Amino acid sequence: MNFNNTLKIVRLGRLQFILGGFLFFCAGTLLALLLNAQFNLEKFIMGYAALFAAHLSVSYSNDYFDFEVDQFQKPTRFSGGSGVLVTNPELREFSKNFALFLMGLSIFLAIITTILFQLPVSFFILILSGNLLGWYYSAPPLKLSYNGLSELATALTGFIVPGIGYVVLMGKLDINFIIFAIPLIFYELLFIINVEIPDMEADSFGGKKTAIVTYGRHFGFIIGAIAALIATLSFFFMPLITNIPPINWGMLFIFSLVPLGFGILSARKKSIKKKSALKLANYNILSLSVFIIMVNTYFIYLI
Fold first, then answer.
1. CATH number of the domain at 3-302, please?
2. Is the distance from CB of 268 to CB of 171 less than 8 angstroms?
3. Helix, strand or coil, per DSSP, at residue 38
4. Alpha carbons 187 and 105: distance in angstroms, whole number
């Protein structure tokens, strides 16, 4: 394999999404540490390695199964696929096989990690669920993104990804994490809505039934703003339903005003043209990144 093909294969991986997954994973591990879990570097590395392989596989499987849809669009920073297979169809079979290899590696690492560190079966179930959601997001027979379930599938990762980080150090899923995950689920909904917004026309031509294809871009921005609002309200009411002494939930409430502000601004703009909507969607996704970085930084400060 020559250097050019190697670069194309790396581009297929769309590593910008991997960073987001790592930040959500870290949020789970940091929450566990704030609840007096002991940090174990080997657990952290093995747990994330299983997640990393699963997360990376999604890019390769999605580009393979979305090949026809991607013919109708050009890739952007966060949407439209990588574009690699459209111009290099000879790499399609490799992309599918590599995705399957990564899934197998992820499940193998999850089994080894579970046995080695005597983790609960919930760790393995979370890894397996992430792999299945990632594969069937675009793969038959489920084809979740073609059957109106892309938003639900992605929202669930707001529980799965930080849940993996939490369980690997805490050794269990408990009510503290479940409550903490509520706003993260809505942030993942905000994320996928803004990924889908620029792809509306191509997704429609390709037969996808996303919320944006069905109801339009302005509706998508409204749903994104509502998701951000629910997340913000979750942090506002968090002190009433859980008690994690080091955390000042007011700080997370303040951090959440960043994605909420951009979400409301986007909804008010009423942008339905692709060019202007793309700009707003990118801002929304970046605001979500800023939020999770601020949360992780705050948690590290508390530790």
1. 1.10.600
2. no
3. coil
4. 28
